[in-house]
Amino acid sequence: MSDEQVYVGSLDQGTTSTRFIIYDRSARSIGSHQVEFTQFCPHAGWVEHDPMEILETVKVCMAKAVDKATADGHNVDGGLKAIGLTNQRETALVWRKSTGHPLYNAIVWMDARTSSICRKLEKELPGGRTHFVETCGLPISTYFSSVKLLWLMENVDAVKEAIEEGDALFGTIDTWLIWNLTGGTAGGLHVTDVSNASRTMLMNLKSLEWDKPTLDTLGICPEILPRIVSNSEIIGEIAKGWPFTGISISGCLGDQHAAMVGQACRKGEAKSTYGTGAFILLNTGEEVVNSTHGLLSTLAFKLGPKAPTNYALEGSIAIAGAAVQWLRDSLEIISSASEIEKLASQVDSTGGVYFVPAFNGLFAPWWRDDARGVCIGITRFTNKAHIARAVLESMAFQVKDVLDSMHKDAGEKGEVKNEKGEFLLRVDGGATVNNLLMQIQADLLGNPVVRPADIETTALGAAYAAGLAVGVWTEDDIFHSGARSSDPTTFHPKLDEELRKKKVDSWCKAVSRTFDLADLSL
């Protein structure tokens, strides 16, 4: 079969939408479809998804993507070799094995309802907030899946009953999708991959297995947990009732790990994905680097059961593109996300306004779930263009905070620089189409920012992992043979160093104003 007839599918299930992309052998998208789904916020700080609605979006996206590719003359039915899957991490749910029915909505990664559980654990455990860091690399935080599971076990009777009856299955979104895609109640496979498992707080980073002492401490029975597999191996086949029946699912990665593969990040290289949140990962190779500056030690990827494990330092930012959505949907300052660049470009500065989007607290490197959003420096001179520019700057400032911590943790030897001695930040995700945001990012970092021609590297990374497992691509194809964009856009810093420092100092002052605001009266 010629290269033109070989295809790999990628299912990308994000925080606000699902999409399916079909790639040819040259890693070019030849058909795609995207569907948004509902995000529920029943109480302040709570964020949920309907797992059944997510399944429906998957089915629609698969079918529509094939229709589009076929209409353009591609024989996808005859040439599709495998499907990769990537997903929003940490979002968790429990369902009944016998019926396949979710026992509660999926609790989304940014949901903050578990703050009281986290405080309780911090007080009771001898290691406090860092009690589990040595085994899983993660602090106790509302961010991670295990505390969401504890909340479900404590507050949802149906979950407690199903666990007692031995009829409960727990998983992140990848697990839910794979179980349903491979048969559901008729033999569906209950699995997760090492990258998603690494975000639960329950997996031992070195053994890549569920950590029994952690499970015992938290009172979680291992029987409800999925089997852990690598990021690139044949997991199972698509069952009847779905598009692509009989095709292998052979790649699975959490979204940020998939982006690292899509960006071909080798040891010492970093990428930042700008979506609902922003996520910066630095590949540390086969070494687990423990952070002393507020970052997470996590798994980067393991591209095969016998492949070496690559680790990473990660800084997670809860609110990035979501702040633009807030301007659009809640304040109605803009009517579409794309309008923010034009509005913010009407002014050449924020006029002294600083916006910190700590809507549900702050993640890395601050880790303050008592923080709440602030907008300071407002005067009669301030207009909506200043606010829009401050929102864009808030995204870039947060990424700078993380990268500053990363530089301290990794050290000179842990980072790769170009021939000019510059550390390049590779960027991707929907918000990177905003040229003003990318220039602001370069200005605040004082380093170049490199945007690939194809910014959807998350879906591409999942496709690479799936294709690698079935022989469509080799690791050399992905990491060494020009898989990186041949036509990237590089943004170089233009901001004066003294002004950069003043702006960073003002930002840090604004961040400090967000602390200890969670108990403000409604």
From TrEMBL:
Reactions listed under catalytic activity: glycerol + ATP = sn-glycerol 3-phosphate + ADP + H(+)
Any one GO MF annotation of this record: ATP binding
The organism's place on the tree of life at top rank: Eukaryota
Pathway involvement of the protein, from the record: Polyol metabolism; glycerol degradation via glycerol kinase pathway; sn-glycerol 3-phosphate from glycerol: step 1/1
Family: Belongs to the FGGY kinase family.
NCBIfam families listed in its UniProt record: glycerol_kin, PRK00047.1
Protein name: glycerol kinase
Taxonomic source organism: Eucalyptus globulus (Tasmanian blue gum)
Taxonomic path: Eukaryota, Viridiplantae, Streptophyta, Embryophyta, Tracheophyta
